[in-house]
Write a structure and sequence with these properties.
Elements lengths: L1 H27 L1 E7 L4 H11 L18 E7 L2 H10 L28 E4 L5 H8 L12 E15 L14 E2 L1 H9 L17 E5 L4 H17 L36 E5 L1 H10 L4 E6 L20 E3 L5 E2 L3 H8 L16 H10 L12 E9 L6 H14 L11 H7 L3 E2 L3 H11 L12
Parallel strand pairs: 1-2, 1-3, 5-9, 6-7, 6-8
Antiparallel strand pairs: 3-11, 4-8, 4-11, 4-12, 9-10
Helix pairs in contact: 3-4, 5-6
Length: 448
């Protein structure tokens, strides 16, 4: 009897110990919360699910080395809302779009309980930094200096709806010269028959309705190149203020033509990248600016952008170039980080902001002309937990590991290219790893 009792006690004890170990392991997991740009959101979801515990088995990429100590949540609320959340250390701004998923059984709703990082395609503005350093800003809550680091680059596609098969359709391969795509967005070309013979259909422009870094980067490109492409377009083609938190479309209010009445345009709004894909797919002969991962050939089956082609655009040398990861990489691969503001520190937000200007009109015959980088906005110190800051050190070291692209891409490079994005160049990756390595210290940019 005593022997049986001992065996039973031992068995029960082992079971109880195992249960306690499971509970302790679960409780030790760090949940990391962020929000922001929809442009890279599908890439981020795949990266986070590769590095940490996936939100679900269906989102887990194959062949990943997982750090079970972390689980990352990311809500695609738009760049502007993401930067506002970052500046004030809050998660109350913006309404998420899906895909990608942003909740699971453990965290069931947005706003999240914490804000640990944010994503934006637009750089931190002077207003963002003023808010960050202000009385009620994040810095007053113990975050230290702000960090802004690029993660990937992607093409901003001009995706279009060919029109119904019962009518004359736009070609599956559509070449647009610089003058043509400038004139479309300036309202100087309003019917496809001004470009394509026998397609007499009005053009519908599909734009973002939310505060969007994709909008900012797209209009920055147009504002830079279009005045030279058409003398009717002024140098203030689009006004500088490209943020929009009101929910109303920022377009076409930005148009300013020389001696020309602002035209009457067909404009449809969409919330987030998926909203733009829906807007294009539901409006025959529509065209819109959008992340490559939300349209053909990268969009998932069953999503609104799956069948949408993208135009080949003339680049700075006049070469018609299709949007692709290689064409995006060719635009960024030679960028080297420098001390742009002369403060003796390489790696502060101003230094990385120079990349946006570098990409506004990429050089080279193989570069796609409209390329955007996307940034992670990080805190030098996350007040609620040092482990959150450490999670980004490990994550960035994995996601931005040294690799040779395109001949020997890393796992994370391949995840990005499968969604239409491209990795950073070798030198820039090393700079980002160094900058993020300063989290939870007072070195480099975190000493400012």
């Amino acid at each position: 009897m005593f022997a049986n009792f001992s065996k039973l006690s031992l068995t029960s004890g082992l079971a109880l110990a195992g249960t306690l170990m499971i509970i302790q392991a679960a409780s030790a997991q760090t949940l990391v919360y962020g929000s922001g740009a929809s442009f890279p959101s599908l890439v981020y979801r795949s990266w986070f699910d590769c590095y940490g515990t996936a939100l679900s088995t269906s989102t887990k990429p194959a062949s990943c080395t997982t750090s079970a100590a972390f689980k990352f949540y990311y809500a695609a609320v738009g760049s502007g809302s993401g930067r506002n959340n970052f500046a004030f250390l809050t998660s109350t701004n913006g309404t998420p779009t899906s895909p990608p998923p942003f909740t699971d059984s453990q965290t069931t709703a947005y706003p999240y309980p914490n804000n640990d990082f944010n994503g934006s395609d637009a750089v931190l503005s002077s207003t963002d930094l003023s808010n960050y350093n202000g009385t009620n800003g994040a810095r007053s809550k113990g975050t230290g200096a702000p960090l802004q680091v690029p993660t990937v680059v992607g093409t901003i596609n001009l995706a279009y709806n060919r029109g119904p098969s019962t009518q004359a359709q736009l070609p599956s391969t559509l070449n647009l010269s610089r003058k043509q795509y400038c004139d479309i967005w300036a309202g100087l070309i309003t019917n496809w028959n001004q470009i394509v013979t026998n397609v007499n259909q009005p053009i519908t422009l599909v734009v973002r309705s939310d505060s969007s870094g994709t909008t900012a980067d797209f209009f920055f490109h147009l504002d830079t190149v279009c005045p030279g492409a058409d003398s009717r377009i002024s140098t203030d083609f689009f006004v500088p203020n490209l943020t929009n938190g009101s929910g109303s479309s920022p377009y076409p209010a930005y148009i300013n033509l020389k001696n020309t009445t602002i035209p009457s345009l067909n404009v449809v709004q969409g919330n987030g990248s998926n909203g733009v894909a829906t807007g294009i797919s539901s409006n025959p002969y529509g065209i819109g600016y959008i992340s490559a991962s939300f349209v053909s050939p990268y969009a998932a089956a069953g999503t609104p952008g799956r069948s949408l082609p993208s135009a080949r655009l003339a680049n700075s040398l006049g070469t018609f170039t299709a949007p692709s990861p290689t064409a995006a990489f060719n635009a960024v691969k030679n960028f080297v980080l420098a001390d742009t503001n002369g403060n003796g520190v390489i790696g502060d937000p101003a230094d990385y902001a120079a990349l946006t200007t570098y990409l506004v009109n990429p050089s080279g015959s193989t570069a796609y002309p409209i390329v955007s980088t996307t940034f992670l906005d990080l805190y030098c110190k996350v007040p609620r937990s040092t482990s959150v800051g450490n999670s980004f050190k490990g994550f960035i070291n994995a996601a931005l590991a040294t690799s040779t692209f395109p001949t020997a891409p890393s796992k994370y490079d391949s995840l990005a290219t499968s969604l239409g994005f491209a990795p950073l160049g070798t030198s820039l990756k090393a700079s980002v790893r160094s900058t993020v390595g300063q989290i939870n210290t007072t070195n480099g940019a975190c000493s400012l």
